[in-house]
Design goal:
heterodimer, A: alpha/beta, Rossmann fold, eight-stranded mixed sheet, 13 helices, 39% helix, globular, B: alpha/beta, 2 domains, six-stranded mixed sheet, 40% helix
């Protein structure tokens, strides 16, 4: 893997001057991902913050080919781009020695919710593409509404905390597992606060020979409600509390790529850092933090045992 | 010349698609379009085309993939019907607004609900303002010809708009007729190689495609889209003329039948034109001066040509295979009435709705419309009453 010094010397593919908020995770992860790719790349972008903030006509921040179609179809769109490429290449109309990289970015709204059908379809069809969900756990572009990725008890504009409700009352969807169940060659969970891990995963994804999916937690200081200079610290907390475990499933083999050194931090630390969970510390909401801690503990243990004993399909093969 | 083949409308369109040999086809099955894609999939399986066929999981993804493909400099085609078209609606608009020359066979079927698989024009008529050029076919021959020539219009540098070739579900799609074909080489030479205006895959000149377009530019881009349709008015007859030279088959914005001296004109789209020709013959044999105008090109709407063809007639009956709920008559009636309004010698106009959900349109019903319109002409009084042909009231 290239060193940080080498990575930082690579040409900037997302220019400055875009209108993403200060402290936004999306801009950080896009730069990290693009710098991890050492081949020509074409990007498909779902409607969302990243799209609206980087391409206000007649300006663009993208120094690579880039296409936006609609909200729910970034995966379908890039599948068309990829099909065009391989059709033209097969006919000798494109003569690249190295294959281009087909990359899609969608937020959790465009990926977990409205775009899950197009994503599932594209993955099943086996297009040579990498889909990156920049998961900031709510519909941030439209003003912080709940998504199926919003964690239980987070307060959002459409599921706010109030006198009788402690924010969202449902658990979040485990999209990484759903994508893993598509039996594609590479699935991973990553985060830009752990740039080395993310860079490694991107390189594995672009060289896996088939569809790859990376679910990348992406801080939104506006929606998570914390000061904008704490983005990286808050993301680190997500990893150290095991709220957002870093792992990959490579050709069916699950590997946890980061384990907190001694013991994982209590989930309350992650909650405390963000205003969207502030009601959990108020009178009347006792027991909720313990409930989430139990969920996180169980999920983490499950992940470790999956790493140790293999995914169920491998177990079946061994019988 | 190519062979004379016995083909259903679907097979004829698939044959044209094979001869075009598009780089990418992305489609999702829906009755009555399915057989067209079956036939094309077999061409792919037998290696008769270079096409990358993308069997997507929905029509929305079909058109989305087509947009990605066409933006990448690949000649791209698809096909759908009814609810499939409704599902892809959002991206149907985006395809046209992005000025991508995608060609689509739209096998006309009634929109749900209630669910129905048979022909009417509610699907394509609902998409009439989506920015696509729209052709309506009378039979399998027209489905073949118009689909085969469609890329040449769509990709013309002055046009750069998608084209929808509409043919009636089951009535055309599933009926076997004799079709005069061209050879593969003739079709290839006629349409020529695709020269994209923008190529997303040209990474040395990176292009941002589909950016956010606010009030400071959006209106100008829409105005350019209007202008592209204006250009299509000029390009369509040029391409039709070239096609006639090649095939000896003549196409124009509309076809007249017994039109020259007609006092009463029936205006129809699609397969009903065939039945209407028989009805016109019968009426003529009774000495009634009835003619037919079959509209082939509905988008762009040939306003001036229709004004020229219809002014001075006594009355026109417009037969719509689509209802416009709460509107004034069907969509073709409404547009034609508007086109003729204010002309000093404008004919009286009557509107009819017929054939919804595949209800059969026989000669007797067309005759009824003609007789009533003759009556209107005799009275010389305009009527705002919309007639419904063949419905139990």
């Amino acid at each position: 893997m290239a060193s940080l010094k080498e990575l930082s010397a690579r040409p900037e593919r997302l220019s400055g001057g875009h209108r993403l908020c200060a402290g936004c995770g999306a801009g950080i992860l896009v730069r990290q991902i693009l710098s991890a790719i050492d081949r020509p790349v074409v990007v498909s972008n779902a409607t969302g913050c990243l799209e609206v903030a980087t391409t206000i006509f007649p300006y663009t921040a993208w120094r690579v080919p880039w296409i936006h179609n609609a909200f729910e179809n970034a995966a379908a769109t890039i599948s068309g781009v990829e099909s065009a490429y391989y059709s033209l290449k097969k006919q000798g109309k494109i003569k690249d020695e190295q294959d281009m990289v087909f990359l899609a970015f969608g937020g959790d709204g465009g990926t977990y919710d409205i775009g899950i059908q197009a994503l599932s379809g594209a993955m099943e069809r086996g297009h040579r593409m990498v889909y990156v969900c920049y998961d900031n756990q709510a519909y941030m572009n439209t003003g912080i509404q709940r998504s199926s990725s919003t964690p239980k008890y987070a307060s959002t504009m459409t599921a706010p905390s109030g006198k009788v409700k402690p924010g969202k009352t449902q658990r979040r969807k485990d999209l990484t597992s759903i994508m893993s169940a598509h039996h594609i060659p590479y699935v991973a969970q990553a985060i830009p606060s752990h740039w080395k891990d993310l860079t490694n995963k991107v390189q594995k994804a672009i060289n896996c020979g088939g569809p790859a999916f990376i679910n990348c937690l992406s801080d939104c200081c506006r929606g998570w409600r914390h000061p904008l200079d704490q983005t990286i610290e808050v993301m680190r907390l997500a990893v150290d509390t095991c709220v957002w475990p870093l792992y990959q499933v490579e050709n069916g083999k699950l590997k946890v790529t980061y384990k907190p050194r001694k013991r994982k931090k209590p989930v309350a630390e992650w909650f405390k850092a963000q205003g969207r969970f502030s009601h959990l510390f108020k009178e009347g909401n006792e027991g909720l933090i313990e409930e989430i801690q139990a969920d996180v503990d169980r999920d983490w243990e499950r992940l470790l045992s999956l790493e140790k004993w293999g995914l169920s399909e491998q177990a079946e093969e061994g019988e | 010349m190519g062979e004379r083949l016995a083909l259903s409308g679907n097979e004829a369109a698939a044959y044209a698609m094979k001869q075009i040999n598009p780089d990418v086809v992305a489609a999702y099955p829906i009755t009555p379009q399915t057989e067209m894609m079956h036939a094309f999939a077999q061409y792919v399986a037998d290696g008769e085309v270079d096409t990358e066929m993308v069997n997507v999981e929905s029509e929305h993804s079909a058109m989305s993939a087509c947009i990605g493909s066409a933006a990448s400099g690949a000649r791209t085609m698809t096909a759908t019907s009814a609810n499939g078209f409704a599902l892809m609606w959002e991206v149907v608009y985006i395809a046209a607004s992005s000025r991508l020359p995608i060609c689509m066979a739209l096998v006309n079927r009634a929109l749900s609900g209630p669910i129905n698989i048979h022909c009417d024009h509610s699907d394509s008529m609902g998409g009439r303002d989506a920015g696509w050029i729209q052709f309506y076919c009378e039979n399998a021959q027209e489905a073949y010809d118009l689909f085969a020539l469609s890329p040449k219009i769509a990709e013309h540098p002055d046009v750069q708009l998608p084209v929808m070739v509409c043919y009636d579900g089951f009535i055309i799609s599933h009926t076997v007729e004799m079709v005069d074909s061209l050879t593969d080489a003739q079709v290839q030479k006629f349409i020529g190689p695709y020269q994209p205006r923008i190529d997303l895959l040209d990474y040395k000149n990176p292009f941002t495609f589909g950016p956010l377009d606010f009030h400071d530019y959006y209106f100008e881009h829409k105005r350019q889209q209007v202008e592209a349709m204006e250009h299509a008015h000029k390009v369509i007859p040029q391409v039709f003329a070239e096609f006639e030279k090649l095939s000896k088959r003549k196409y124009s914005f509309f076809e007249g039948y017994q039109l020259e001296d007609a006092e009463i004109v029936l205006l129809v789209l699609g397969s009903t034109a065939g039945t209407a020709k028989v009805a016109v013959d019968e009426l003529r044999s009774q000495g009634k001066k009835v003619g037919l105008l079959k509209l082939t090109v509905f988008r762009p709407f040939p306003v001036k040509k229709l004004q020229q063809a219809l002014s001075g007639r006594r009355a026109v009956a417009v037969l719509d295979r689509c209802a416009s709920f709460g509107g004034f008559g069907g969509p073709v009636f409404s547009e034609l009435r508007s086109a003729l309004f204010g002309l000093s010698d404008a004919p009286l106009i009557r509107g009819y709705i017929y054939g919804l959900g595949g209800r059969d349109m026989g000669i007797a019903l067309i005759r009824q419309a003609a007789e009533e319109t003759l009556e209107t002409a005799k009275k010389g009084q305009p009527t705002e009453e919309i007639g419904y042909l063949g419905v139990r009231e």
